[in-house]
Design a protein that fits this description.
Blueprint: H1 15-44, E1 49-58, E2 62-64, E3 70-75, E4 82-83, E5 88-92, H2 95-164, H3 171-216, H4 225-242, E6 245-247, E7 252-255, E8 264-265, E9 272-275, E10 281-287, E11 299-304, E12 308-320, E13 346-353, H5 355-360, E14 368-374
Antiparallel strand pairs: 1-10, 1-14, 2-9, 3-5, 3-8, 4-7, 5-6, 7-9, 10-13, 11-12, 11-14, 12-13
């Protein structure tokens, strides 16, 4: 008897299974392509760049501090105002400084006249020395005359004494000769005393002239130390007067303004800060594992949260800090203890920015930045 039962037929494939398989295959292909692209990027591009978003704008700010004390007369700027280099910022009352300048000018005039008097005195003292020399000459002549008169009186006295024994000379004549001899002796003593006095006067005159000459010798009147000292005091007074006007040391933005009209300020007290906007830099804190190929001069591309990714800043690595932030902290980490946990440290890298780009897109101190260093160059 023939078997009339039909053989079981295969179930047809479900359309859903084929679609799922295609999707899985496509997803796997996408993943593989993505991994390949990522690997190519990492090898060809990523390995040549290191980046960080731990970067902040910095600048060499200038502190405005008075060099003299006094009350504030005017405040010419306000917070956030942009100022140019040399622009007046604060005016301190200058009444005392002006009086000091007038006093210094008067002192200079007195010194100049005093030194002129030294030169005039030198001429007068030279005349005195010459006069004393003449007195000495006259005194020497008087001594010579007195010596001659004494010698003549001595001879006449000797003759009278010789003749008096024979009675040829009266006693009155002998007495007269004796008186003349005594007077001649006195005249010689007086003449010698006058010569000594003339010599002493000459020495005193020469000493006075020597003292005066020491005050003026070697330099003209305009360079005399007394005049120069008076000029220096005048310049110091003028400098103090000029310092009553505080000017911006650099161009930038007024920040941390802390001064009001009428305030009594002391020398060295910070009144405000000027933050430059066209000479800013970036301190990017890279992990220590990123720095093995970072070198000075490498190009850097930066973006700022202020302007967004569509504005690119370009700079170059200027230098690497001498230590990590933790090393210079107020209380540095003590890794010598037993409870030590290794933490990857960050080292500040100073990046100089393009001034032309900063002029078009100014940055402010403390703004966040993202830095990308091309370490292939």
């Amino acid at each position: 008897m023939a078997d009339t039962s039909a053989s079981p037929s295969r179930a047809p494939a479900s359309p859903g299974n084929g679609r799922r398989r295609q999707l899985l295959t496509g997803l796997a292909a996408v993943v593989v392509v993505g991994l390949v692209i990522w690997a190519l990027y990492a090898v060809l591009i990523g390995s040549h760049h290191v980046e960080t978003d731990n970067a902040y704008v910095g600048a060499d700010t200038a502190q405005v501090t008075p060099l003299i004390s006094g009350p504030v007369a005017k405040v010419l700027v306000s917070e956030t105002q942009i100022v140019a280099a040399g622009q007046p910022l604060v005016v301190i009352d200058d009444a005392d400084a002006r009086i000091a300048v007038l006093a210094a000018e008067a002192a200079l005039g007195q010194a100049q006249r005093k030194v002129s008097g030294y030169f005039a005195t030198d001429t007068a003292l030279a005349g005195q020395v010459a006069a004393r020399e003449a007195d000495i000459a006259r005194a020497k002549a008087a001594v010579t005359g007195a010596e001659a008169s004494l010698e003549q009186a001595r001879i006449e006295l000797s003759r009278r004494k010789a003749l008096s024994d024979s009675g040829a000379v009266s006693g009155e004549e002998l007495t007269t000769a004796q008186s003349r001899f005594t007077n001649a002796q006195s005249a010689l003593v007086e003449a010698r005393a006058a010569l000594t006095q003339a010599l002493a006067s000459r020495n005193a005159a020469e000493g006075n002239r020597g003292v005066n000459t020491a005050l003026i010798s070697g330099l003209p009147a305009g360079r005399n130390p007394e005049v120069v000292a008076a000029e220096a005091r005048l310049e110091s007074a003028k400098l103090a007067l000029s310092r009553t006007v505080l000017r911006a040391p650099i161009a930038g933005v007024v920040s941390k303004k802390n001064v009001q009209v009428g305030q009594q300020v002391q020398a060295g007290t910070p009144l405000m800060a000027i933050v430059p906007t066209t000479s800013a830099y970036v301190d990017a804190n890279f992990k220590e594992v990123q720095l093995d190929k970072v070198a000075i001069g490498q190009p850097v591309t930066l973006t700022s949260d202020l302007y967004g990714g569509h504005v690119k800043f370009h700079g170059r690595v200027k230098g690497l800090s001498g230590g990590t932030g933790s090393a210079f902290s107020l209380i540095p980490a003590q890794n010598a203890s037993g409870n030590w946990i290794k933490v990857v440290q960050r080292l500040p890298v100073r990046i100089a920015l393009d001034p032309a780009e900063l002029k078009d897109h100014p940055l402010r101190v403390g703004l966040s930045m993202k830095a990308d260093i091309d370490i292939s160059k």
